[in-house]
Amino acid sequence: MFSTNPLLRWAIAFVTLIMLTPAQAAPQQGVTGQVISKTELAPPNGLQEAAEQYLIHYRSTSGVDGVSSREDTAAVFLPKGTAPQDGWPVVIWTHGTIGVARGCAPSLNPRTPRDAQYLNTWLSLGFAVVAPDYAGLGSAGLHHYMNARAEAWSVLDSARAALGAFPLRNQLVLVGQSQGAHAAFSSAGYQPQYAPALNIRATVLTGTPYFAPGLSAAQIFAGGTQEQSGDPKIPYAFYLYLSAADQQPGLNASDYFQPRALPVLEQARQLCITPLTAEVMQQGLNAGNSLKPAIQQLLDEQTDALRYATLKIAHPVFIGIGGEDINVPTAMQQRFATAVREAGTAVDVHQYPGLDHSSAMNPSLRDSVPFVLRTLAEER
């Protein structure tokens, strides 16, 4: 008797799809998107459902200046079992906010329990996982936080590099949470021009930031008070300022941040997101007691670099929204979903009442996995 569980039915269908889908050619490799080195990933930084796991260094181009050559890093996880003749289908995992310092790179640290659970699910379903760190994380230079083109170029080059070095099928799904949702959707938008040979079939997003026309980065941090309650969005303001200061060395932090925030801003250069957020909350930092009016202009100047290249994507997009999200406000995500649909993108939107920015991620799998399996089973 066949199971009535819809997720199990989709999984069975997908196993059949893996065995029957004809092979597709991997993209042509140029100077970018080439593996420089490949080593086994440190066991503490691995995933339970991976049969093999590697750290790769690959060639890319800086999306910040558009010309500089880079060497970026990514982790690659291969599923257990025998690879299909035409290779494993691939999830390109784009991670959430982790920090801007080199040592914060996910490939250099154990995955959080939340992320490990999420990625192990995709591995157990027969997907390889390619997990780029982003430029400046695990590689040279400061990570330019939320720079859409920089994220996208590094992510797309990680996919090209992995396809050339592992038994993978050029059948890709971009999957991202929070900053990673921003990176995934940015990658989907830049892919037709930057990496046209990549066969991206679907994009899955949860906790997606959206800098709409008329909405600046500064407005996101408005509304703080002089009360002693910390705001978990303040680390984002620190990271955005540090990205701007990296391009404009003459900036003076005291012009944009109140004295109370300056010591923590300095720590943000090296602190990854979890200890930085803990410090912000302990110090009770919020917009009212941390930001100066001039931050409005600075962040406004950064907003263009944060915006998506396009809202019209040629493949289907899944959007999961936590109904109680504070970090990326629920209303912002709803506005994003509406704008993407109105732009002509095929979208599947799910909202999860009572769940916040982090807790909505794994429950969204009950909807995003069938969405992906259904999309891959359809003819293009």
Automatic annotation (TrEMBL):
Keyword Coiled coil: no
Signal sequence, start to end: 1-25
UniProt KW keywords: Hydrolase, Signal
Pfam family, one: LIP
Highest taxon of the lineage: Bacteria
GO biological process, one term: lipid catabolic process
Coiled coil: none
Residue ranges of every copy of the Dienelactone hydrolase domain listed in the record: 310-359
Family matches, as PANTHER family: LIPASE 5, PTHR34853
Protein name: Dienelactone hydrolase family protein
High-level lineage: Bacteria, Pseudomonadati, Pseudomonadota, Gammaproteobacteria, Enterobacterales
